Records
---
Amino acid sequence: MYANFDLHLPKDLSAALAILGDAGDDAKVMPLAGGTNLIVDIRARSLTPAALVGIGDISHLRGIDVTNGQVVMGGKTTVSDILRSPELTDRASSLVDSARVFGGQMVRNTATVAGNICYASPAADLVPPLLVLDAEVTLERREGERTLPLSEFYLDYKRTARRPDELLTRITWPARSSDSVDLFYKLARRKGDAITIAGIAVALGVADGKCTRARIALGAVAPIVMRALEAERMLEGETLTPELIEAAAHQAAQAASPVDDLRASGKYRRHCVQVLTSRLLTQAWRRLS
Amino acid sequence: MNKTKQITLLINGRTHRAAVPANETLLETLRGLGYFEVKSGCEKGDCGACAVLVDDEAVDSCLTLTWTVKTQRVTTVSGLGTIEDPHPLHTAFIERGAAQCGFCTPGLIIAAESMLRNDTRDPSLDDMRLALSGNLCRCTGYTKVFDAVTAAARVVREEGGPK
Ligand SMILES: Cc1cc2nc3c(=O)[nH]c(=O)nc-3n(C[C@H](O)[C@H](O)[C@H](O)COP(=O)(O)OP(=O)(O)OC[C@H]3O[C@@H](n4cnc5c(N)ncnc54)[C@H](O)[C@@H]3O)c2cc1C
Ligand code: FES
Ligand code: FES
């Protein structure tokens, strides 16, 4: 491959954080996980890192655990790991569904959750489900770690709160019970290996016939994967009716700011946000009642 | 300049020592060592022609830097069996006419083998679509590929291989 870079393969997390820490704010020293974004961009010369820090040998960053009512997922967990995880099938069906329509097998076998989050594509398929699950991300650097809600991680198109010397080491979210449902739908040209035109996730919680918790996340229809906060507020505390669902879906579509590109027009994308949000909310509510 | 390192690779059960630069992909290393059955199609993860097994999982060798696989087993389509003792997938692809020009075949067989090892040995049509959606074939229309994988999976189940 035509490119010039140094490649570090630290044996453990502290060694990786030391290399990143020595580079400080130099964003030319980049973590390398599955490489399914990075290697493609380096070959296309849209990225020209001076050094890559391969995190493949840091094995404890991979895996899914449920402890103390929390789902804890290592940053290096792959998309295939999500599909093969018995823990997640009931606890995060939106995330499992997004993993199922993610790339092709070879990409799923190597692509990591942290890579999907940190690359910050608006079309990142794992992000809408993680947003509706109320995921938090833990970022570690030599000096210590911090945890922030995923909803505060994205600043603008491909800009995140991550400092260049931080690694995303864990993703956590509260494990919920049967009084909550989360769903995801990816609209694309095909089911397999296609870039998302609109990716919608919703989550609803219910108690005594009323919606206690509503989350709606929209992918590929704004500079970042976004929450439709206004629409969520319309639903919380209410008994959902077809009219209310329609109104919330309309609100979500208005909140999006989709662009025209080779995959779809902005107008079509906005229409799809309305239709898909309404459809998913209806399905989720029906499952709860 | 890219740094170069002497590394040891285990490919199809054979040990190789090679001087490999930091920026070299596994696809480049394998073809450089004469493993021409590993095909170079798109070199960006779209076509799956370059798929190989690293340990038991299929990866696109065009997206893998060689230094990162140094302690693992690499298997190409030729490492799964020989002319005298072919793998059930080899046999089924021939018998069912699942290879036409053959360019995609090494990758398809590796992806199918990865599914049989890691996911299911009794794949439905949807399982096969999921497992093979990262492999492009311009010739067969995939129907005969699915026939072949179904037939090979049956043989593997009867032989009682892994999983
Ligand atoms: C053919 C193909 C199909 C694809 N299909 C899809 C799809 O359907 N849906 C989808 O969402 N994406 C898709 N992608 C994009 C890509 O696979 C995903 O975004 C993937 O999750 C990236 O993860 P990675 O481990 O490969 O990241 P890498 O490429 O290794 O890294 C991506 C970015 O994240 C940073 N990074 C990685 N790990 C960490 C960490 N732990 N801490 C901090 N920063 C980190 C890197 O420095 C880099 O900036 C596809 C890519 C290809 C090539
Ligand atoms: S050459 Fe690697 S996926 Fe096409
Ligand atoms: S047989 Fe020709 S590309 Fe598949």
Note: Residues 143-159 of chain B form the longest helix (17 residues).
---
Amino acid sequence: MLWIAIRMLTGDAQKFYGLVFGIAFSTLLITQQLTIFVNLIERGASGVYNVSSADVWVMDPVSRTSDVAYALPSTALDKVRSVPGVEWAVPHIRAQASVRTKDGDLEGVAVIGVDDATLIGLPKRMIEGSSAVLSRPDSVIIDDVGTTRMFPGQSPIGERLELNDQRAVIRGIADAIPSFTSTVVLYTKYSQALNYVPGTRNRLSFVLVGAADPAQAKALAERIERETGLKARTRDEFAQDGIDFIIENTGIPLNFGITVALGFIVGVAIVGLTFSLFIRDNIKQFGALKAIGVTNRKIRRMVAVQAGLVGLIGYGLGVIGTVFFIWGFSSNPTFKGFYIPWQIPLVSLIAVFLILALTGWLALRNVLKTEPASVFR
Amino acid sequence: MGTPIDTSAIGGCKPEAAICTRGVTRDFQAGQQTITVLHGIDLDIRAGELTFLVGESGSGKTTLISIMCGILWPTLGEVKVFGTDIYQLGDTDLVEFRLQNIGFIFQQYNLIPSIDAANNAAVPLIAQGMDRLEARDKAVAMLEKLNIGDQADKLPRQLSGGQQQRVAIARALVHEPRLVVCDEPTAALDASSGRRVMDLLRDVAVAEDRACIIVTHDNRIFDLADRILVLEDGRITHDGTDVPEGH
Ligand SMILES: Nc1ncnc2c1ncn2[C@@H]1O[C@H](COP(=O)(O)OP(=O)(O)OP(=O)(O)O)[C@@H](O)[C@H]1O
Ligand SMILES: [Mg+2]
């Protein structure tokens, strides 16, 4: 009987493709939008992810994220170093600055000052040059998004910039996760950064801490807070803070939520209409099958197989479409590092299942209600 | 001429009756009105006979045989098919009973458009759980008996009305049901095809433990009947071996 069910479905090519298209389109809309949403808000944590070696971030109690930070007095570094369980602690500057390019354009950049001695605070991988270039005077390392933004189609190596009336020479490109705003990022030594950032008395943004026992980072953060009166967050907590900040302070969740809901509604509409039309067109055949001796249970199973088949094909196409989309745009800095978390295809699978279960159930009610004799009149 | 109506049937059902109806009444709702199409039909259909049911259009023939084959619930009365009180069965049991015991051909064939003639004819066997290819072979053999073996691979829309009707007949007979019910099985056929269908129905459906009821207007085949019943306005008015004047 299931074979017959499938033939009934594929025999009507127009509706079959309509159904597959409807499901594929909804899946694409839901999967793709959720993927962009998740990746985009994760950008709120890029500053934390780029410094993966820090177990704990220490900051002023009012600081909220890696980009929204209030400066600390430089004595904070020694206070943190004296807390038991701290393996190492290094200073970290993150500040906004304006840069004049060679052509005279003005560009807002983020200047990140990393520890002079250990270079902790620099992204792990370099695309061009090595981290050692920072030991040369006036050196900065630009991130790859900055390269495509400020120097499209050319190498930035050797380019001179003017920062706070100081000279800076780009000597390397870092492989970094872009920030939420895709700001150009310039990495330099802490001591150098102090010159690039317009001066106030306190310019230390964070103290980055390595724990003696990384598994105990949470306990260490609490101890640092108790003993120094500063705010201390573990890497994971601070990453989450950055994500929460984006969620709370932008319209992004709402906008994407609307698109995802639209995907679902479009799915229900297209699939619902086509599926119920398909069932209605076949109601006489289903009625004849019932009369001949096919139980309601078997008819339900036939419709489930029909729904399952279009569901699987449509869902597969939708997910493949999303993969191609992400892959096709992977060279675009906006989409750099985008990935599809496994939960998202699962969510769209559940959405597809709900769409089909809902429309299938509605369409089937008529079939199950028909008195077999009525189809022979 | 017609014999008087067999009133001895009224009372309990005889165990040897293939179909036995007692007080079968059926109402339909037409807007606010209730119309009674069958008025307390008491009938015994004997096994081993070819029974014809004739009557004017609208007299209730299709309604009566639908009730007899378990696809239309009577408003009142009981129907026993080979001793089983079919409307006392649960829904699923009744469906299963039809699948095992009843074959029918109605004026609407309702063939499945996307599968070929042989597979359409094989549907009851497939529904019974037979392997699809084996079922198809049996169906092809049945189509051959109906003289349309060469059409087995065609889709219903590629067939003429008479060919489609024979596919429906094959579907009704392929699982060798004990009761075969036909509504105008020869209406779309020429005389020789009609004869052929009737011969086949006799072969397949008329035996010791089987029964066959045919609704027909086709006076070309009246001579084949073992028994002819006349329905007028929902009542049996004639029961005999020949047709009364005017039918
Ligand atoms: N589902 C229904 N709803 C309303 N009225 C019905 C229904 N089924 C049958 N009727 C009515 O019952 C009467 C008998 O119908 P039925 O189909 O049994 O007649 P018939 O003898 O088979 O006629 P024909 O020779 O034209 O096929 C008709 O008046 C018809 O309008
Ligand atoms: Mg009729």
Note: Residues 108 and 153 of chain B are 21 Å apart (CA to CA).
---
Amino acid sequence: MSEVHPYIVVGSGCTGAMAAQTLVEAGVNVLMLDAGNTDDTYEKLIPEKDFTSIRQTEEAQSDYLLGKKFESISWANIGSGSQLTPPRKYMVKEVEKFLEIASQTFFPVESLAYGGLGNGWGLGSCVFTDKELEAAGLDASKMKAAYQTVANRIGISGAQDDITAYTTAHLSNIMPPAPVDSNQEQLRTNYNRKKQWFAQNNFFLGRTALALITKDKDHRKAYQPKDLDFYSDKDQSAYRPWITVNELKKKSNFSYKGGIIVKQFKQLENGDVEIITWNKAKNEEEIFRTQKLVLAPGVLGTARIVLRSFPEENQTLPLLCNPYAYFPCINVSQLGKTFERNTSGFAQLSLFHDNNMQGDDIAMASLYSYKSLMLFRIIKEAPVNFRDGISLMNFLMPAFVIMGLFHPEKSGGRKSLSLRKDTTKISGDSLQAEYLLSGLEKQKITDRNSLFKKAMSKLGAYPVKMIDPGMGSSIHYSGVLPFEKQEKPFSLSPDGKLHGTKNIFVADGSGFRFLPAKGLTLSLMANAHNVAQNALKQN
Amino acid sequence: MQPEIYFRYLSRKNPDARSLELYSAAIAHHQLEFSKKENRLHKLSQRFPFLIPFIDAGLALTQPLSPYRKNIYIILCILETQPQYFPLLSSSMNEKSKQTFLSFFFHGIRAAFTGVFGVILVKLA
Ligand SMILES: Cc1cc2nc3c(=O)[nH]c(=O)nc-3n(C[C@H](O)[C@H](O)[C@H](O)COP(=O)(O)OP(=O)(O)OC[C@H]3O[C@@H](n4cnc5c(N)ncnc54)[C@H](O)[C@@H]3O)c2cc1C
């Protein structure tokens, strides 16, 4: 029989990395099992230059801007996958093969990469308010301490302004924000001018807090805007989970095994856990044993593994996902301007709507300028011939503000996951997903979209259309194993333990009973740290 | 497929060897099946290249995902990632270029007219 590992963490994404770091720092032995796909092609091709210089001088730029297989040339409308440029596409490699999902109504993005979805996340970082934490089923005082631990680990930049209460709130050690470009500076000026209207309507604008360091931190370099945010992470200023895992690999009490697809687990009588996996290189099953299992394969990944592990129950799980849509807007004051040279592709400003000023019904929009994703991705949206389209788009592009609007998500409507046997799939099954909003939820979203459109117009950026990339496109998932104080199957105890098990913990967002309309990942990481601490305690 | 006319349509220049090489490689990955009608439109474009903007515009309004347009789109992607076409395709990133409202309105109005005639042309072809 194989060796019994004290702790096994599944997944190297934001939550797996945080949980593993907490365990390793506590001195216990940790094995991380991970699908672990990496980019072997692109990162090394991208020269140490800024985006404009690359565009002006590099003969080989099409290799990484379009992709060696021209994978960026797509006929699909600009949608949630659009930020996945060729150097980021490995994030979703093999997902169709191993993470089968069948749905007409739910189109999630999942990852089998080393670092998971965190390889391409937009870094937007927000703490949840006390009310949001309570609604999610999280302990506010423990989360506050954990937020600070995570912020110290990953590095966060942001400003003290009208949205601080929604972003970094009580956090200390926040670095100053990266510079803002003139497109968004103009919105800020308009906001300050019309502050009364915004305050009366419960809207607040400020700098987006990002997991982006603007001062050197350990071996990571301070952010220098080069417009390469969708392509390269050479300076490591943006927090990516592999940065943590690479550091952990240097420790003697940590080991990493990639190329492993975890299928299910089995509780043994002595309390140990057996993990049944698929070894991709050997093309065969491989079994691991541990005293404590910490699952962090992402919410949908956890749902699959847990459902497979209790097949006799034929269970349906609930599902939460923030409704999301994009609104391209035109900032009229920028029409016909040329771009400044080195700017940032990350969200620069965020607009919050605190519906009743109680902190429990907040919607958030992230505002992006559009430059390094290039002309070819948007020109096909224009119903004109391409030649005139080139001139028109060049005139409009510096004035584009893309508003990505998230809505809060509670249980309601018909939103669920179940597992169906499917012998044609490698896993032997496929995840069935249904995501249908109730009429009331739809109405609320429509009303709020209108409010945000009005607020954007007040900022001087006029929405031209709404792009609905479909449910699942927010890439914010949770709630499949909701936190429950009482022992109940297919739920988690507040400390992250899977009810009905002794030594199985879930460190990703599976337990969150409510999804605030904010970047959730900082909260996922803080919770993962707490879950790991609880796993350590329960010896 | 002889793509040169479409390169000239977008860039007003004959394509260089590298762009043509990239085009062949891209087409190998994104195979395009022209329908009978699109073949007719392609032949028409070869004989009368000045009709390309009309056909392109007509299809943009009636069948934006037509392989005829996809073909031009592939060429546009290639041109945008070639440094010699940077001034033409990325004037918004070129600090020296001046983009005027006048030229915007000119192109807007021209695009609208081209669209109207294009729809008729595509219907008739
Ligand atoms: C383009 C984009 C932009 C985003 N922007 C933001 C943002 O601005 N703010 C924000 O808060 N969030 C954002 N997100 C969401 C954020 O990325 C996720 O919330 C977060 O990364 C989830 O982390 P995770 O660890 O729970 O899961 P994942 O990142 O999915 O990690 C799962 C890990 O488990 C591994 N794995 C999965 N299944 C198995 C298996 N069966 N066996 C073995 N290993 C497995 C994977 O390889 C991976 O390492 C964005 C996401 C994307 C894609």
Note: The mean pLDDT of chain A is 95.
